[in-house]
Amino acid sequence: MLKNHIPLKEVYTIIVTFNGQKWIRKCLESLAHSTYPTKVIIIDNNSSDGTLQIISEFPNVLLLKQEYNLGFGKANNIGIQKAIELQAIYIFLLNQDTFIYTNTIESLILEAEKNPEFGIISPLHFSIDEKTLDNNFSTYLNRQIESKNEIKVVPFVNAAAWFLPIQCVKKVGFFEEWFSHYGEDRNYCNRVLFHNFKIGITEKSKIVHDRIIKRNFNKDKIQSKYSILATFLNVNQDLSTASCLAFKQVFGLSKYFITYYSFNKIINLLLTLISYYFELILNFKKIKQKRGNY
Question: What is the pTM of this model?
Fold first, then answer.
């Protein structure tokens, strides 16, 4: 039993690594100094730098090496499955480019124990200066719907640090593997809400997310495609409504990027998204089946 009368329950932290030697030592050291003990599972997506050598210095880490890069969702699914097999009570999904504070997990489990209606609880994400909030994270925080027992209820928070009770994972399932690297967290949040769990951010817990977000046309194009896919698969709306909203996104996303890219790139994006939209329409049966499985 720890302070605040928190019962000791099995918490498994799952980290997907890929060429993460810049961050992984600090991430693992921070977990090792957590006031609330956590077991760590790493799924390495075939790193070619010094990531595996650094991980080998932490003998208590369970390392699951992959032969090629599975992407974020598929790799996390392997870790989640292993955590379930090992009788996890809570799962903490954590990015390789983050580190936690000593009381991060302790604060998260305290909030989770008091608020079982939450399927995802996120700590605050700070930038590397440890003073300012991560820019993208601030957007999610500002979309607060309500406050529930000091947890800010939001419709979405990115998956850099998700604390999930096992009952939510077993109800909602795994990440949708149709997404390769972007959009899977949006899809998962939609499904969490569909199963009547809440998504929240607690200001009592924090992490540092060491990243610099830069505009990249190919990345934005992929993210835009997966944003449309996430809309098609959003089971909180009927399929006809979802398909109409996805069609609007084709033009809305293209318009959004006008301030960032040249006219030729915007036309390229628009044509790409139109083509992708009709590709999904042709896969309507598969989309309907996937939605039914959620």
Answer: 0.95
